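Here's what a typical entry looks like (Regulatory factor X, 1b (influences HLA class II expression)):
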Amino acid sequence: MVKGILHPQNEIFVINHLPPCRSKPVKALFIFGTQFKIFWMKTGRLVTSVDTCRLSPVCVQVQWLMDNYETAEGVSLPRCTLYCHYLLHCQQTKLEPVNAASFGKLIRSVFMGLRTRRLGTRGNSKYHYYGLRIKSNSPLHRLVEDQQHLAMRQQPYSQKQRIKPVQKVEGLTNGMGLGLGHQQGAGLSDISAQVHQYQQFLDASRSLPEFPELKDEGIPLPDGLHPQHVHTYQLIYREHCEAILDVMVNLQFPLVETLWKSFWRFSEGQSSETDTLDLHDESEKRLPKSVLVLLCKYEPVLNWARECDNLLYQSLVEILIPDVLRPIPSALTQAIRNFAKILENWLTNAMINIPEEMVRIKIVCAGAFAQTLRRYTSLNHLAQAARAVLQNTAQITQMLSDLNRVDFTNVQEQASWVCGCEDGVVQRLEQDFKLTLQQQNSLEQWAVWLDGVVSQVLKPYTGSPAFPKAAKLFLLKWSFYSSVVIRDLTLRSAASFGSFHLIRLLYDEYMYYLIEHRVAQAKGETPISVMGEFACLNRSQRSMDPDKGTHTETPV
């Protein structure tokens, strides 16, 4: 196919790559104003018009591709890079983007003969368009700061100068006017525009892990579904998750909503089918929405989607907050919390008309993801506040003085009666705590001590099915014991009560973090998955009729 632009001013056409005279006609793609036309060309003259329709968005997209990219030998460009550039372009021009599959078809129609290769090491490879590059005069080059880092990470955006996303609400919520998205728009846009300042706090080297195999569990496919449909769904869902990871690693939070809407075929009702392009046409060819709806009711697909979401969200957590104790800029923390606050609403809105079974699973996983982000950012905030206390010699001296006046004999008796705590363990914890405090250890050294406490207490249960229960029970005992110590300090009007209260909040939250990861490791799951199971259990309990519910004693 050859390509050209018909200029409405003078009604002449320009051919980009016109082949020599041939006996057979060749196919030519033209843009004429708001018209998208495909012609048959023979010896450089117009022969037959075979397709004419009003496709204004496509015209803009084709022109944008031709303005910014060109074919060349021996070069390649990550497929996700082009798509993320395209999402930014749509955000700036207020166009409704098509999904990744439809965009890929458009690229191949513009750049004929383009090949796709999967490049990179195993577990970190990505699909590339081979023989395509960014033009030397393209403004997209402003998105690149470190080409070496870009090649290693294969990211779609740069670490230096970036094209700023649209600051208006349309750019954030895609014109949907979500209430909460409106409130959070400025913060999310600002952080994405300054991503180069925050890359050092992220783990940009992490890639999406391999997804598990989909097991049919002996359940036959329902009428209307074929094995190829399931395979296609797995492919496009993997591409969808990779796109989410790529925009998240560049802190382009608003684009997550766009990706969700595109994948789940969200549309808001169009004025005229003759005037507006069906944005999901290519998706329909690859996987019709009717088939997508049937897949969303098929139990093996539901279970597979849950596992994939847990892997995706765990990767995103480890990218955004790779170390919960490391100081994070307040702007980055606030942007992550704003995103956690709005993401469930975005997903719910994008999945309108999708079967409830799939929506429920997706929302539970997304809710666990949001809750984890909120908890980890809160833990990080506590850690930074506690650093000031642990580095203050005068406060440490006062804390030791107040701690020595605590009646630990009474504390130990209460803990033994309520929790069954072993006297030897309690005494050892008391001595170690005082010694570590006296040494004025850093926060990281305290973290090592807390991790050692968990390992020591749970060592007898390693490899046992009782490990998760023992870990949760230890968490309850730790919480009760620390609350009794705080109560004693309160009754004695300890001068360092505020410092102890802050330290107690931090250590309780960090202990919860440690137990969460130990339980997940013991069960062979991700922490997100463990929290998702807990959230699902809570929701099912809340949905019970309180008059018919039963109360169960918690074993200690």
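The beta strands are 2-7, 12-15, 26-32, 35-42, 45-54, 69-78, 115-119, 126-134.

More examples are in the samples folder.
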